[in-house]
Amino acid sequence: TCPPPFFLAFKMDIDHSCDFSESDVEHEDIPPDPALQEICGSEVNTEFSKDKSEVTTVSTMTSFEKVSQGINHVEGGWAKMINADDTEVTARYKKKYLKDEHCQHMVMETASVMEHCNQCKDAEDCFPDLKDEEGVQEMEYEPSARIISMLRDPNKVKRTATSLSWHPLDYHKLAVAYSCLEFQRAPKNMSFDSYIWNIEICNKPEMTLKPISPLVCLEYNHKDTHILIGGSYNGQIGYWDTRSGSQPVQMSATEHSHKDPVYKVIWLQTKIGTETFSASTDGQVLFWDIRNMNEPTKRLVLDPSKKGNRENALGAVSMEFENSMVRAKFLVGTEQGLVVSCNRKLETTDDPIVCMYSGHHGPIYALQRNPFFPKNFLTVADWTARIWSEDIKESSIISSKYHMTYLLDGCWSPVRPSVFFTVKMDGTLDVWDILFKQKDPILNLKVCDEALYSIRVRDKDSLVCCGSQLGTVRLLKMSPDLCTLQKNEKALVSEMFERETKREKILEGQYRERHQMKQSSSVEDEGGKDDMEELLACTEREFFETVEAEKKKIKDEEKERRSGMFCFQD
Q1: Which UniProt keywords apply (predicted)?
Q2: 231: which of 82, 217, 453, 467 fits an S-S bond (Cβ 3.0–4.6 Å)?
Q3: Interval 181-213: pLDDT, tens
Q4: Which residues of the chain have pLDDT under 50?
Q5: Residue 454 and residue 162 in contact, taking contact as beta carbons nearer than 8 Å
């Protein structure tokens, strides 16, 4: 029999106690029976020792049938005067004992210890005595993640969750933009609504945003958290104030808006907090002030020739601007696989396009600077994820392996400089730690069966949300080692970035030298070719001159011979 459940949680003083007595123990070696061994087909060798009774050698080949069976726990260990079969008596005894102050104190003390052990995942916190010589617990790096909640598109006709934005202050609110990105394949009766969710209430959105056209991107304003800016599929820009309802406060005029879907909008961290800019596949970056959205305040055409020709412009798919950086530069990821570095202050420069970074083979769906090292940025495109340095234009400093499926989005961890996340078309989430592995992810998690189009990490911790093709947003909780800054991690990542940047600079210099040598050798080859042609022409000319001279000499000799014959006849 087992004691009742509440007996297991704490120690109780009862009248009935267990008596233990000493007795002599006999030790005996029992060899296996050969007859039984032939029948069972097994071999079991058991050896006992007076110091320690333990099984030293066990090997078995016996086949068995596995059966799952529950265990019936029966109450027991009652006081001597209590009849365990009488439910009323036992109930009164439980009630009386639980009211005792000593019992309550023991329950609270034991519960706090159990809660601490349950929530504690770090061996150093649970077992502070188990440390190495330097006082740091050596732990195995075992990253993990689990899905804790799902936010489903409430409409019957499902759309893709194309953009996610966490509330800057209220970490329970998440804005999700829904749209269909397949050109001219939007289903009939498709809703244009996007939603603001409270992740603690998953069955119904907290607020509905009703745009004129489906929203492709959506961002909270960090200055005024009641305001959101959104870019529509038809190219218009609009903003909402949650205090004013579901309808947009203002929308940009169609004739002054983008001509293609708006894939990215970014707020500028100004004193007023009303300035923003947008990027679209029509090859333009437009700057706006939400106080007057009739037309943009500035316009930049992503023309590589820097002539402002929209016919030659590169289509923008992603964009990144780090407000903490002193330099007024921002990055644009294009459909052609190029990253364009642009100058935000168009009125003070004649050269808005600073430089370009090449290396991808398809549209750059994600572009983000490292929050700890802004000079290094992450790009996600085609089948790879790459990390770049601003000083290297020709190639990335770190690149993942080529995957079998397309990568559709990615972002850095806000708490660890070496960790970033990517999502793929096959519905998997990859977690990367460049200090541990550079070519392969440290964690690969199958989130769903449909494609994952968007991902965003909450700033205060590593709660990750992933938006799928069918409009379902899944919330994943990362393990503590993925959301806790490790010892010397910043210094190690900084050293890695500097080392890889130097290596790429050396390789870039060698490539340029070889390229110059090839050009010089080609020039020499062209010069040698010209000399050879001139030599051949000169030789040919001398040959024909010699032939003509011989012909003339023969003619003169013939003429002299004939004139001599005429004189002899006379």
Answers
A1: Cell projection, Cilium, Cytoplasm, Cytoskeleton, Dynein, Microtubule, Motor protein, Repeat, WD repeat
A2: 217
A3: 887 788 888 999 999 999 998 889 999 999 999
A4: 1-17, 41-64, 121-139, 568
A5: yes
Q: Which residues are registered as beta bridge partners of 279? A: 264, 285
| 17 three-state secondary structure | coil
Q: How far apart are CA 198 and CA 220, in angstroms?
A: 15
DSSP 97-136: HHTSHHHHHHHHHHHHHHHHHHH---HHHH-TT---TTS-
The amino acid at residue 343 is N
Q: CA nearest 286: which of 314, 269, 306, 264? A: 264
Domains of the chain: 145-486 (2.130.10.10)
Contacts of 525 (CB under 8 A, 6+ apart): none
Mean pLDDT, the chain, rounded, equals 81
User: How many angstroms separate the CA atoms of 509 and 515, rounded?
Assistant: 10
Q: For residue range 503-520, what is the model confidence (pLDDT) as tens digits?
A: 988 888 887 787 777 777
C-alpha span between 257 and 288 (Å, rounded): 10
Give SS3 for 45.
Answer: strand
Distance (Å, whole) CA 499 – CA 55: 54
∠ CA 31-36-42, rounded to 5°:
80
The β-bridge partners of 389 are 376
Please report the sign of the dihedral spanned by the C-alpha atoms of residue 423, residue 161, residue 235, residue 295.
negative
* CB distance 266 to 219 below 8 Å: yes
C-alpha count within 13 angstroms, C-beta hemisphere, residue 132: 5
Largest CA distance in the chain: 179
Cα distances from 248 to residues 53, 399, 421, in angstroms, run 78, 41, 33
CB 14, CB 110: distance < 8 Å: no
Burial, 56: exposed, middle or buried (Cβ in 10 Å; 0-12, 13-18, 19+)?
exposed
- Map tokens 């009303």 to a residue: 274
- In angstroms, the CA 185 to CA 165 distance is 26
